[in-house]
Amino acid sequence: MTAGVVAEAPAKVNLRLRILAREASGYHGLESLFAAISLADTVEVREGAPGIRLAVGGGVDTGPPDDNLVVRAARRFHRALGTAPALDVALTKRIPSAAGLGGGSSDAAATLRALNALHGEPFGRAGLLRMAAELGSDVPFFLCGSTLALGWGRGERLLALPPLPSRPVLVAHPGIAMPTGDAFRRVAERRGAEGAPEAFAFGLDRLGGWSGVSSLAENDFEEVAFERVPVLAAAKEAMRAAGAEISLLAGSGASLFGVFPSTEARDQAGARVGALGLATWTAQTLESEPPLRVDPSRGIG
Ligand code: C5P
Question: b/e for 167-194, b at 16 or more Cβ within 10 A?
């Protein structure tokens, strides 16, 4: 009998994303407020023949399997464990790729969690977080234990926060990719001598409720993204008109999300944004990390 563990890999949105100064490494510092949402991929890991076989379903293009963060996460985990992998991995994609929603990063985090369970929890959270930071800047958030966190550095330094009550969310995508490096370059060019904003220039008490968080909602990539893809600005306005408390670009784009006071307002926004030609997904913010499921048909004990 082959053991299997299933992990949900939720998408993230940045309720706030400020780009700080460029550091010696060439990377920019970030100030980010991450929130996990219910739009999720599924990762299933199962013991198999030697090697790592990845099967991708769900109709979202994820590129070559060898570059997939799921495979890189599995390799990294087994290097830490000191054993050769013998795995079958099934990834069901629902989160659009390269959309600013952290899909690949979340898949990697879910892989680490699932493999840790499959092997009897050899690593604590700190060990998994170290592996996560090596895999990518957005990966640690999905292992921080909360669905809301303040991030800095490249986004890998985290303060887990008490989650806020779940709110309906709309995600919209214009079907255009926006390369991250390009977006950083454009923002830096535009700023010129004006320079980067001051970090964390707000009271942390504003993170304790949706009204405070709404007042902090900002994304420094918006201006350049809206200039390149003007329909995003129209979609943001449509979400606002339907009652969104927050409506922002997700990460460096190109998707957009809204947080709504009710499902009625969210669905009204969905109709308006759909009429502009964007693909839409409904979701909600998460109040807790999705639990791992042991696949009973495969009898793991
Ligand atoms: O993280 P990733 O390799 O996808 O980033 C692509 C490019 O975006 C980097 O090479 C860098 O130019 C820019 N970047 C940055 N600051 C960050 C993250 C990315 O300047 N925090």
Answer: bbbbbbbbeeebeeeebbebbeeeeeee
The reported pLDDT for the residue numbered 261 is 98
Residue 299's pLDDT is 44
Distances (CA, A) of 12 to 22, 48, 118, 186, 197: 24, 31, 25, 23, 23
The pLDDT of residue 300: 41
Residue of 18, 20, 27, 105 with the most ligand 1 atoms within 8 Å of its CB, for mutation: 27
Distance CA 108, CA 98 (A): 14
Q: What atom in ligand 1 is closest to the CA of residue 28?
A: 16
Segments in the chain forming alpha helices (H): 69-81, 103-118, 125-135, 180-191, 210-216, 222-228, 231-241, 263-275
Domains of the chain by start residue, with CATH: 4-163 (3.30.230.10), 168-284 (3.30.70.890)
CB within 8 A of 243, min separation 6: which ones?
A: 260, 261, 262, 265, 268, 269
CA distance 296 to 301: 9
Q: Give the pLDDT means over successive 10-residue stretches in the chain (301 positions).
A: 88 98 92 98 96 91 84 98 97 94 97 97 97 97 97 95 98 93 92 86 96 98 96 98 98 96 98 98 97 70 38
pTM of the model: 0.95
Record the tokens describing residue 115, joined without a space.
């493999």
pLDDT at 66: 77
Count of Cβ atoms closer than 10 Å to residue 7 Cβ: 27
Phi, psi torsion values for 104, nearest 5 degrees: -65, -40
What separation in Å is there between the alpha carbon of 180 and the centre of ligand 1?
6
DSSP secondary structure letter of residue 18: E
